[in-house]
Structures are given as C-alpha cells and as structure tokens.
Amino acid sequence: NSGVVCLLRPLLLDVVPSIRQTTALALGRLADYDMDLAEAVVRAGILPQLICALPEENRYYKKTAAFVLRAIAKHSPQLAQAIVQCGALEMLVICLEDFDPGVKEGASWAFGYIARHNPELSQAVVDAGAVPLLVLCIQEPEIALKRIAASTLSDISKHSPELAQTVVDAGAIAHLAQMIPNPDAKLKRQVLSALSQIAKHSVDLAELVVEAEIFPVVLTCLKDSDEYVKKNGATLIREIAKHTPELSQFIVNSGGVAAVIDCIGSCRGTVRLPGIMTLGYVAAHSENLSMAVIVSKGIPPLCVCLIEEHEDHIKAAAAWALGQIGRHTAEHARHVAVANVLPTLLDIYVDTRSSEDLKMKASILKALKNILQKCTYLPALEPLLHEAPPNILKHIIGQFSKVLPHDSKARRLFVTTGGLKKVQEIKAEPGSLLQEYINTINNCYPEEIVR
Amino acid sequence: RRLSRMATVIQKWWRGYLRRKHFREIVERAYFIKKLNFYNQMAVRIQKMWRGYYVRKYIHNFYALKKYLKAVSVNNELVRSELQEYADMKENEDKMKDLEKKEKEKKHQARKMHYLLSTEQIPGIYNSPFRKSPDPMELLLRKSKPLSHRKQQVKSPFPYELYDWPTCKKPPAFVTELPLLPTDRQKPQGPFRDPAEVLWQRYKPLEPTLRVAESSNSPPAKAREEVRREEWRNPIHDNEFPPFSSYRKNDEKYEPLLRRSGKYGQEAYGTKHFREVYPKKWIADKDFETLFSSIVLFEKFGKTYSSTGQIV
C-alpha cells in the first residue's frame, strides 16, 4: 500500500538471480494475503515482467513465479482473467513440463486456482494444453504432486460435460481409479472428488467411470476414518446412481447400498448429505430398487437423520428420500409407516420454529403426500388424524375412506380408538373432496353410531 | 280415393314381399353378430387368465423378486462384514503407529535424561528407597545410551523442503557449520591430525593488526581521515592513468565514411562500375589476350577460398 509494489518492481529485473527470486517471493506473499494487494500487483503491470524470461530461469524462480500467479488467481475471476490475458498460461505449461516436482506442483496448483472460477477460464486452461501434462503429473511418485494434479483435474471437469470429456479423453479415469486404494487421506479426497465431477454430467461419462472397476474399492473409502473421504465417496456413488436405473441396479448388486447406509449411520452433519441423496436416487428409479433399499435396512438411519440433524437442507433431503422410498406401492408405504416415520415428519412440518424455510416445508409436504397416497396401514395413520393440518388431513381421510368400506375389523378398530368421533368433528365445505370422503366413511357405519 | 287405397294395398304387399325376402339375411346377420360377441367375451376371459399368469410368472415374478431381495441382503451382510474387517484393520494400524511413536518418544526422553539414573550411593528420582522395585522409567534409563549433544542432528530436511517450497514459508536452508569432533575421542588411525591441535587452531583467538584494532572514532583515526580527504580533494594529476601515446595516434586520424567519400559525392548504393568498351578505338580488332600460358598455381590466387559465398 505504501508503494511497496512499485519499489519491488525494478528488483524483478535485477541481474542477481536470488534477488529476483526473493522479490517474487515477497510479491507472492503480499498477493496471497489480501485481494486489494493482488489487484495492486496486477495493476502495476508486474505480471509480464515476471513471466517474460521464465523458461530460462532456474527452478526456484519458476516455483516462486507459480506461487505468485496462484496467489493472485485465487481471489476472483477478474484477476484470473488478467493472468490469462498476459499469456501466463503458456509459461505455466512450460513449468509443468519441467523435471522438478516442486515446480510441477506449483504450476498445477496455479492452474487449479485459475480453472476453479468459471467455465471460460477452464476452457482457456484446456486450450493451453495442460490436461495431458496433468495426467502425467498424476502418475508421478510424489504424493503432494498427485494430490494437486487430481484437485486441478477435478476443478477443470466440474464446469461442463465437454470439459469433462476432454479430461476423460486424456486417459485420466484409469489413473484416478488406480489411486483410490492409496492410504493417503487427502489424496483420496481429491481423487474421489475428481471422479464424481466427471461422472455427474452424463450417463456415458458415468458408465465410463463405472467401467474403470471402481466398485468394490470405493466402498472401502466409505469406511475410512477421514470424514471428507467418506463424503466424497458417497458423492461419487450418488452421481453414478442418479442417471439410470441400470446403474443404480449395479450399485445395489455390488452391495453399495449397505455401505452407504452404514456410512450415514456413522457420520454426523453435512457429511451425511450425499449418502442420503444416494438412497433417494436409488429408491426413486423403480419399486424393486426401493424394496432393495428397504431390505438393506435403509429406513431407520434416515429416520434418525430427520430427528437428529439441525440443518434444514439435511432434513429436507432425508424427507425427500423417505418420500421416494414410500411412494411406489402400498407395501413400501407400509414399511415406511411401520418405522414410525410419519409422526416425525408431521412434527417437523407443523413445528413453528422451522416455518421460515419454505423449501424444506414444501419437500416435507410432498414426501408426506406421496407416502400417504399409498399408505393403507391404518394403525400408523390413526395418530396422524389428531394433529394434522387440513391439507394433509384430506389425504389421510381419503385413505381411510378407501380402506374402511372393505375391512370390518378395521372399522371396529376405527370406532374404538375414537377415530370416528374425530372425523365427525372435522368441518368441510359440502361438495369438496373432503366431504365426499367423510360421507363414504359415515356410510360404512350404521346411523346410531355416527350420531 | 279408392285408387290411393288400392295403391297402398299393393305397396303393402310389395313391401312385405321384399322384407320377407331379406328377413333371412337379417336374422342370419344378427345371429352372427351375437355369436361373435360371445366368442369375443370368451376370448377376453382366456386372455385375461393368460395375461395374469404370464405377468405373475415372468415380469412381476414375486418369488424371483423375493429371491433377489434375499440375495441383496445376503450380499449386503457380506459387504458389511468385509468393510468392518477393513475398518478394524485400519484402526489397528493406527493404534500400532501411535504406540510406536510413544515408545520412540519415551526412549528419546530416557536418553536425554540419562543423568537421572541412580548411582550406588544416591538413589535416583525413579528409584525411591520406599518402593519395592524400581520404576519402569528407571529400567529404561538403565538400558539407554546417554545422548550427547552432538547427536542431536536435525532430521534430513530434504524430503520436506520440496513440500515447503510451494507455500514458500521457509527460506532456503543454508549450509550450517560443520559439527566438531569431541576432544577426548581416541585418535582414529590414519593421517589425521590430533583433534586437540585442530581445535586449538580453529579456536585461535583473533589477533588483529593495529590498524584494524584501532577504532575509527579515536583521535589518530580522525586525524588520518582529515589527511585522506585533503588528498582526495587536491590531486596533482587529474587523469592519473593516461594511455600510452602510441595508442593515441590511431585515434586522431579521421576516417571519412565510405558512403560520402565518393568522388562526386554520394553514389547510390549498389551502383556497379564496369570498364567501358569502345570497339572503334581498338587498334587491332581483337580484345586483350594473354601472351603466355597462365601459371596454374597463380591462377588459383584469390580463388581457393570462397569469398563471401561465391563459388570457387
């Protein structure tokens, strides 16, 4: 701020190499600390001077220059764009081709920060020809280099299917899949995140990822001691499961559902979210898969999530997943109802504290509707009669009106538990659906009891 | 009126006749339609039973579904147990690593605090006379070799240096001074000097000259400073190191530019001059010719080496 950048600028062109290096280091640390300083560095026009003679410099200078570029690029897309415009990408590619692993690490880190912001910058990185070099970097023995190359590939492929396809065409999937059994936790995080960013865009990419034979190995990641490895593993399985029923079937057949359920049970907090969504996606595709989820004891952990978690979006996700499980047939709805899920859902819905978040309420409402429309298990519906708000009540009454005319034991039970009395108390406009349901119920009983 | 009545009667009989002719066809048609409907209904019944059977057997095969679900749950159990094994194995590994680390720490501590070992006369801290047997720490101390200061070398910084560089948090490590050998070491065999001698030489006290020893603020130093400044100000020769005179001669001659030194001023670059040929002025009508045979050796003069790319 006090003109430091202008003072450092002539030192960059000094004759002595270690002065140049130290200047670059100082600039890098300044830019790293604060966004305004980074902007000041860019405005002072230092970047062209920094990278002008980069290929002839020694490896320490290259490392420090890559550090400076990375420190500038990480703050905002405009700064990253400025870096791209002064032609730094070609220089970084030259750094990536260097022999020293530290230089490669710095260069790929800088690429990662540039590509992170938006698709155009990622496209610029890909156009500079960085992707094959990054795939080569992944095969190097140094763990830190592998980590950073994997994270850069993940950042590049997350924006669009074409970029992901470019990464796949460079042969990245096989190498990433080979690194999944590696014991280093941070490396696993990045590798799983890269694979999930590739798989999320389309069915073909997901199938390519699956064909790389990740399947039983990925399940061991779900048992890892590191939370984020579990989260990224669950994310990968979710991205694969969401595309088609066949992929979900494949996951179920390889025992993935059990592993995901265990993973949900053992974590707390946002780490659970991808696992919950996986179960939802698998159950949504078909009723057989949904039955498979139920059989693998999927409902109790979801219920526990609903009760325990404080965050709204996790609760909404758990409610959605339960809705997907229960919406197929009466059998599924019965399993869901038997697990005592419906009162919990209703409680959350009615709870005045959570009334601000409309999205969560809407998702819970939809889930409840889906389950209730198929639920014929009357003992579970009884307690809901007493507490439900009107829009849910009409579904409950509808279900009763469907079942009661046919089942005499249920009729008797209905009267003894005071359900009929409750039904009488409900006021409905004549001619509405609710009134019809009430009439149907009343018609099942002789006149004296109704009064 | 009678005519119209007659006409009606005739028409009545004619219509009846036509109808009676077509009656059979109508009846047959109606019978046929009735039979067709009956067959359709029966066919629907058969198809209904067949469709139910087929769907139950193949498409929504309940028993196959049950088997599949059972297989899925068995597989899940298998996967769960395997994963549990894997998790246990990892935990064990972690525990072992922790234990080893602690052991190493303890051993290092024991080596550092070796002086706490109890002697014959004085019991050490860990060997209180009120105890039945010495503390495990005491036993460890007995076992360990004393740690000398020299041995505390830094773990090789090289593998971490590369990883520190990207964040550039540590400056490049400079070479630290070499560790010194202990004085009481047995002199090793070979052409080595006596360590005591080496140490004496290395730690010889500084004996600076008088000039250096004198501080720059003392009066003689200041006086000398004055004289030096005086000399710097008033040199006799300004140009103390002139070049030799013979070099100067070449400097003084003026060489005009080639460009401007043409006879009639500047000539355009690239003009070529050729000797002019006047055939009318020739005495004989022959051009010059050589009178004697050329000497081969002298012909090659100037042509053996290519001059500015011309062909030899």
Describe the protein's architecture and organization.
The complex is a heterodimer of chains A (451) and B (312). Chain A has a domain at 392-450. In chain A, 76% of the residues lie in helices and 0% in strands. Chain A is built from 32 helices and no strands. In chain A, helix 1 (4-11) runs antiparallel to helix 2 (17-33) and helix 19 packs antiparallel against helix 20. The mean pLDDT of chain A is 88. By secondary structure, chain B is mainly alpha-helical. Chain B has a domain at 1-60. Helices cover 53% and strands 0% of the residues of chain B. Chain B has nine helices and no strands. Chain B has helices spanning 2-59, 62-112, 136-143, 158-167, 195-202, 210-213, 219-233, 245-252, 296-299. In chain B, 4% of the residues are buried. Chain A binds chain B through residues 25, 28-29, 60, 63-64, 66-67, 101-102, 105-106, 109, 142, 144, 216, 219-220, 222-225, 252-259, 262, 288, 291-292, 295-296, and chain B through 65, 68-69, 72-73, 75-80, 83-84, 86-87, 90-91, 94, 162-163, 165-168, 172. Chain A: One of its GO terms (biological process) is filopodium assembly.
